[in-house]
Structure formats: structure tokens, C-alpha cells
Amino acid sequence: MVPLPADKDVRLAVVGLGYVGLPLAVAFAHRQSVIGFDIDAQRIEELSRGYDHTMEVESDELGVVSVNLTFTDQIEHLVDANVYVVTVPTPIDKYKRPDLSPLLSASRTVGQVLAPGDVVIYESTVYPGATEEDCVPVLEQVSGLTLNQDFSVGYSPERINPGDKEHRVADIRKVTSGSTPEAAAFIDALYNRVIRAGTHLAPAIRVAEAAKVIENTQRDVNIALVNELAMLFNKMGIDTQAVLDAAATKWNFLPFKPGLVGGHCIGVDPYYLTQKAQEMGYHPEMILAGRRTNDGMGEYVAAQVVQLMTKHRLQVVDSKVLILGLAFKENCPDLRNTRVVDVVHHLEQYNVDVHVHDPWVDAAEARHEYGLELDPAPAPGTFDAVVVAVAHDQFKALGASGIRRMLQPEGVIYDIKHILPRPESDGRL
Q1: 91 contacts 264 by C-beta, under 8 angstroms
Q2: Which residues are known to be catalytic?
Q3: pLDDT tens readout for residues 380-389
Q4: Model confidence, pTM
């Protein structure tokens, strides 16, 4: 085995500068020089002038680390690195199947510059076995090198929470692993340089991969349970939030809330686990049941809004409905896998004229990703219904009176996120 890099000789490159890669690159750049690589030339241009459109890193911090952090979209600039951290997306396709193409493409990129003694660390969420079964063969084929003879790999799952200014990358304990005991120790020590919360060294790469994918699968199943309860309590005429508040008085009650389950993690990761399970002849039931429930919430919410309008004798066909929020979570511009679009599309099937307003979201991105034209300034007194889909601070600040100013006199508010007191909304999840 070719020796691993000495601590003082580590030359780090982060491949993929999105919500995960950029904060990680910045964290390391406070300690050492880092190459930040991304195939998006516009992203590189923005970062080079100190602007992060994801709002995960402030311009001031980018300025502080600029002496150590170099941005590039040129593969040849990666040649000088000897440790590569891959932080690219791992989405699903339209059939809910894992799409490893960004990960395999990044592996081909790294393979072109991989040299003896180098280390490749993957952070992208995958199913157990993907690093060694899918990524390593690409690295070996492109580079002509052999794993654990010429180079090492590791897996350290990302734990970034987009929009969360309290739990930053350095403040969340990091799981680490490596393809050999020596590589695992090296990778663990590398992350310990910047992770104030410390690390947990897993005994194998597959253990670390599984640990990541079940984090969000567990949350998905719990939210599905609460969503199902919300639908049941609605039929019973019981306020779901009141039930949850009462149940939460017991110390070990888990405080999950009903809602639309989107984003790059919770709504995606379970499909990585179920795909691998099915390949092995095991057919998971609870995980897929939770996914079916959560994937159906957009249709359910749209039907509830239509029912609420009908109850208030509002004409549904050709009505105007305003959706407040498009991002997948509050106070964040992230549109990845937002399930608000499901509400929009199902309302449109009722021949509703749907308008969407979100002050956090880039209008061009909404148009590109979902074909939606955002309403930058909804006109007062215009809408038959307003659906509060995302709990942005701006919407909370409006309060019931501010939201009602957007409605026609008999219009109704449906509050998915429970940002209003129960008496101040006409319906809620």
C-alpha cells in the first residue's frame, strides 16, 4: 500500500459546491488551503466574487477564507490535490429510483487526476455498498489504480441542515469510515481538525452509509404516521395540533408534525434504502408505506382546500388561490424536491388559477425547475383562498390580518404549517 499523505502534506479538494460542499470547504479553509471544484461555471463565478446564492455562507466569511479557498471548474486544477471529498447530489428519477449519475460523473472526474497515495471521501447519501460497489470501480477504471493498493476511499455522510444557522457543519458530530483501518484513522483525524462536535468512527464504510440513509428514513416514517393521524383526526373533527400539544406533555413523546415532506433528504433517502433492499430480494413494507403516505399529502391538501372553499360557498372553478411558499422548508431558498408543487398541480386539476409567492426563492430557478412563474407582489383583495405552505418568517409576521388582506371578503385561509392560532385560520392540516 502506498503511504497515506502526512497531516502537514494534505492538499484538499471538495468536489461539488452546493449546500453540502461549500460549507465544508469553508470550514476546512479556516485551517488550510482548499480547492473548491464544481462543474457549474456560473456557480464558480458567483463564489469567486464572494456570493453564495444558497445563503449557507455569508459573503464576509467567504472573504475571510479567500486566501485559502480557490474556486474552479477546470479539472486540471485538481491535479495538485491528494485528498478529494465528493459532495454531489444523489437524487431520484421520475420513477423514484436512485440516480447515481452525478456521483459516478464526479468519480470519473476524480479518477482522471487520482494519483498513488491519494484518498477519496464520499459524503453523498447512498445505499449501503454504493461507495465500494459503484464508485470505486469507476475510480479504478479511469485512473488505472487499485483500491487499497494505490489509493484509499472513505465515507463520511453529510449532516448539513439547509437554512439552519445554529447547527453548522462544525457543530454536528460527524460519522467517518475508511476502506482500511489506516485510511479510517486518517479520515477520522482529518475531520477532527474542523468538527468541533467530534467524530464517530464507524467500523466499516457500509455501516456509515447505512447510518446516514436511516436517519432520514426514520424521520420520514414518523412524519408519515403523524400525517395519517392528521387525516384521521380531520375526519373526527379533532384539531391535530391540539392532540399533539397534549401528547407532548409526556417526556418521551416524539414531537413530529404533519406536513409536506420534501427536500433533498427525507423525501429521497428512503428510496435509496428500498431500492437496495429489493435488489436483495427483500421487500420493505413500513418504509414504502410511509413514502406512499407522504407522497400523497399534496393531493390531500389540495382536496382539503377545495372542500373548504365549497363549504364556504366559494366557486372553485376559475377561482384564484395564492400559495404562500415554494421552498421545501422555512427561511431557506432550497427548492430541491419541494412538495408544494404537488399542491399547485392538484389545485390546477380543479381548474383553479394558482399563484405562488415566495420571497426566499429565485424566480428563474422556480421557472427552470418547475415551470412556475412566481408572483412577486400578490395584489390585496384578489384571492378566494390562501394556502400557507411554508413557515417563512415573513409570513408569520403578516399574521392573520395581513394574510386576510390578500383575500376577497369571503375568502378562506388554509394553514398547512400552523403558523396561525387555530381560530384565525379557516382550515389546517
Answers
A1: yes
A2: 265
A3: 999 999 999 9
A4: 0.93
